[in-house]
Amino acid sequence: MGKLSFSLKPNFLGLLKFLNSFNWFIVFFSLVNLSVCIYEDQIGKFDWRQSYVGRIKFAQFDTVSTAKKIIVATEENVLAALNLKTGQVVWRHVFESASTGNIELLHVAEKVVTVSGSNPYLVRGWDSATGVLLWEWSLTLQNNDQAEFSEWFVENSALVHMLPVFGSHIEVSMYNLMTGQNRGSTSKLPALWTNEGCVLSAPYYTCLSGNPGSHLLISMDLTSNAVQLISKPLSQLITNEYDSSLRSLDGNSIVPGFILGDKKISMIKNNEFDFLSVELMDPSASVAIVDSSNGLIILQIWSDDEKGFFITGHSLATGKEVAEIRRPASGLSIPSPEISAVTCGTSRDVQPCRLLVTAQDDASHLLHQNGRVVWTREEALASVVAAEFVDLPVSDLDAAIESEFDQKEGSVWAAFSRRLQQQWQQLRTFLASLQAGEQRDHSQPLVRDYFNLHKMIVILTDVGKIFGIDNLTGEIVWRRYERGVDASRAVFYTRRHASLLTVVAAHEETGNGLIISFNPIDGSLAGERRMQLDTRLLQCTLLNKPDQEKLHALVLLDSEENVQVLPRSAAVHVDNTFMYVADKSTAKIQGYALRYDGKEVVAQKTWSLNLAGGGAGFGPDGDSGAHRIVGVWPKPSAERAHSPGRVLGDRSVLYKHNNPNLVLVLTEARDLHHKESWVVAMCVDAVSGAVVTSQVQRRARALPLAVHSDNFLAYVYYSEKHRRPEIATLELYEGQERWLEAGAAFSSFASNNKMALVSRAAYVLPALPAAAALTRTERALAARHVLLALTTGAIVEVPWAYLEPRRPVTPTPEQREEGLIPYAPELPLPAEAVINYNQTLHRITNIYTAPSGLESTSLVLAAGLDLFYTRVAPSKTFDLLKDDFDYYLIAIVLSALIVATYSTKYFASRKLLKMAWK
Amino acid sequence: MKYFVAHIILQIVLHYCVAIDYDGWLDIKIEHSLNCNTETFCSRGNISLKSIRSGTPVVDQILFTKHHIEEIKELASIDGFYSIRTLCSSPDNKEMEFLSSLKAKAFLDSGLSDVINVWVLPNGAVMAVNFQVDNSSQALSLSNNKIHSKFYLRYVEQAPVPDTASYIQKLEREREAREKGEVKDNRSFLAKYWMYIVPVAIFVMISGATNPEPAAQAAR
Fold it and tell me: For A614, which of B96, B128, B133 is closest by C-beta distance?
């Protein structure tokens, strides 16, 4: 045997060599396996999706079909049917997001009819049960300038289009609803009395007209054959006519009417104004007139800042209050409510009234007539501005252990007694948790789990509503509505780990800085609470050094270049702090150095770049040839780089250029000489203002999509030459030798006029992306993948190995050994790499990623019209057991083995004893 | 043919180096914040280029006086910044302003030597002017109070486009190779298929070794 193995030895080595030479093959196969898909039974296990429709613009109850629904049309250009009982989306159509998808009219009868677009208009009919398109015809108006003032309504199965030319006439056209046939061509009704303040309460068009002091209330039936004017002097109706205004009734009121001067409600009946005996209960009240078993009812809803939300109902005939419809003040908070739709059971079946109420915070509530909330839809989540994954606080038990190890001072005996105390405490809390566990095991306490997979997602929306969402279930834990917040450029800052989060935004009216600090776990205000600054903010940042209370101070730079530090006591810590401000339209970037001079923090402007390249800035026509900044991408804060270099095939190391202050700036310009647009990418050191590298794409348009991390960056642009999206990737290297000693801190000022080696490449993208992000893991050990959200509604995970600019066209054996994939100009986007499998996500605007406690796993939240959360494992779940791991089998086998070992031991000893006796 | 390819490559390289389709003069006025009596910035010198394409500059800078040195030492003592403002003029643009700063201490230590990087777009527009302390060489003496500036004109490079041409060429080459037929493999049978034979042999061997040898047991 020994001889044989000796003679085989060289062959063994040969086999190993052979395997080695086929290394690249193995690498290739492992990459093929990188496509991480989930199994069918894992659907919904790690991910959730929430569908939204946006702020409701029009809504109508569909009472005709058997399954009761509400048909809604929204500001986000979505037509959808909501389940009446649960509020779930039954079907949904997402139109174009531009003005071409704008919904102008929703009419629900047997079929759902919409008018959408802006000259040309599309009239479509939909089946209310399934949402299937039944018919469609288009309509182009001759008078394009006035088209935006168009009003539409449906009367007697005819679509009426009304176009007022203010101060002159009204054009009224009627069309067949199904075919678009013009019934009796356009008629021009003379109306000198029209102005911008007129309201349409179909079929009447009502205006306040005339000279100040002698106002007339004029109304006209648009559909009658003979022109009939109803008019009444205003002075007879209200005493103070200067603050009079007209407002229409809400909630698809069944009789034409209007509200005069936020006070009086009027109907138009038999060509006469009929002022009701019931007055408006509150100037801001929303009013609807609805048919019910008790005859016509006037419903009013309003909200009081202190007292809360009210509903009242009055009978139209008698003017008496309906007892059942009443919601006196209560804790329910619905800011500035509006009746979107209302329905009451008519005649025999005594169904109560139900109201769909849309509030200022974009939330829609379905209310019972007594004010009970049936369901609530938080439509603000359809427009997410910023999101942050927040770690949950550790449990009391873990906190006690941590605090014990924090205390270093004291003698051995003190430490020992403390240990004993802690142990006693731990035992007590454990027993307490056992007792309490039985009572509240369904409501998990919000504490950190072992792998830190359970987090709180804090979301800031466009209307200024902030949500705290449990990332495992997708449930909204808390919500907080802040009035008057211009959230368009708001930023989140984690001030103190798991207990203080700050939003820096602007005030809606003044544009001044607005700071809201709150506890991210329960949503209660904390720290500075809500703080209104009296200046506009240019830039803000966090101090990376926390104070004694582990609070990171907020440093704010205002438009007068003054610096504020919150809290003030932290000003002494400001040292070596740098900021940059980029102006998008003028393409100027300025850098500031902040220093504490003993009294206050001062900002000194240290560098400025003018990326506009000499033009005078973009003019109103946007075509002056100067560059404008499309976006600025710094490296993610608190990011780790796991290795300083890459090992090449020949075992040498290519060191990365890891400048933590590097910022990618993308600009776009139109070159006037060549009539083409350029995309310029610049990597700027944000501390010294030095340009590290730059490149220009000709005949291309920039898209605000880029990723930047470690020593690599990638950005997407649209090639006008080839009419396709492409992605440019760059990697920065120092070369085979380090510039600095290993472990030396990087300084932007200690430059040694070496230029970083840049490897660049570009790839063709077979689909148009709408958002891009990088996966993030705790220690950056796992591979980095780029997540591309496509306009098709898929999120594709692309390994960086495919985007790598060093991919060679014809690889040498060394490059193969290194694991570089041979270059292919087109980037593969395989269907297996779609992380949201068949759940199409509409209009994704942002992807947010966060690391979890598991090195393999990165948490992903995609926001757009829908919210989608999942977790991805870029290097596969190397630190996790498989989902279907058979614990029982392993346990049984192990215990059986142990039993077998001991029993055989026993039998063996018996046998030995017996043998000894022989 | 070879020479022709080489020529093309040379042309491409040349084009890449001077990736600029515009030529013209460039004048850079340098101002700094030292020893200026009333104003914030006063002149430090001037750099002028006859042609952006050739990139040869004419640098003309003032000598530092005692006042300058004193002031910069004062700045260095508080670890302050020595700020430089540049105004670039070209036929298309007048006086584009850029600002850059050096750590005063580092500038003093390096013997008043700095590196000036000017980034230029292919259409000749200046995008950035940076000053950096030059500490690559050993510190120069401060004796002559002269500023040692190294000037670099850097062009914003043309970014690569998806390289379809060479990929198609590679595919063509591979196809041609396939059409020509595989290279005749005239190795011996064993040399060709040893990797299949060896595992089988090993398997046979291992299974042979693990089999109990009945003869030996019988002997016991």
Answer: B96
Chain A residue with Cα closest to B78: A597
The answer to whether the beta carbons of residues A552 and A529 sit under 8 Å apart is no
B200 touching A, CB under 8 A?
no
Question: Among A18, A611, A696, whose Cβ lies nearest the Cβ of B159?
Answer: A696
ipTM at complex level: 0.79
pLDDT of A237 strictly over 80: no
DSSP A382: G
Which residues on neighbouring strands pair with residue A286, listed in sequence order? A301
R_g of chain A, CA atoms, integer Å: 34
Spatial separation of the C-alpha atoms in residues A168 and A182, rounded to whole Å: 23
Instruction: Compare all CA atoms of chain A with the CA of B118 and give the residue at the minimum distance.
Output: A691
Beta-bridge mates of residue A209:
A216
Name the residue among B93, B101, B161 with its Cβ closest to that of A606: B101
Distance (Å, whole) CA B7 – CA B14: 10
Model confidence over A107-127: pLDDT tens digits? 988 889 999 988 889 999 999
Can you tell me the distance from the alpha carbon of A475 to that of A547, in angstroms, rounded to the nearest whole number? 34
A871/A868 Cα distance (integer angstroms): 10
Residues of B in contact with A692 (CB under 8 A): none
Domain ranges (residues) in chain A: 19-46+768-798+824-885, 283-382, 394-434, 627-739+753-764, 886-918
Question: A719 contacts in B (CB within 8 Å)?
Answer: 161
Cα A813 to Cα A424, A817, A822: the distances in Å are: 64, 6, 11
Among the partner residues A1, A14, A610, nearest to B209 by beta-carbon distance? A1
Beta bridge partners of A866: A51
B-chain CB neighbours of A698 within 8 Å are: 122, 158
The values of phi and psi at residue A68, to 5°, are -75, 130
Closest CA to A150 of A172, A168, A174: A172
For A576, nearest residue in chain B (alpha carbons): B79
Render pLDDT for A199-217 as a digit per residue (tens, 0 to 9). Answer: 888 788 888 877 766 778 8
In Å, how far is B202's CA from the nearest CA of chain A? 9
End-to-end alpha carbon distance in chain A = 38
Is the link from the previous residue into A120 a cis peptide, with omega within 30 of 0?
yes
In the DSSP assignment, the letter for residue A836 is: T
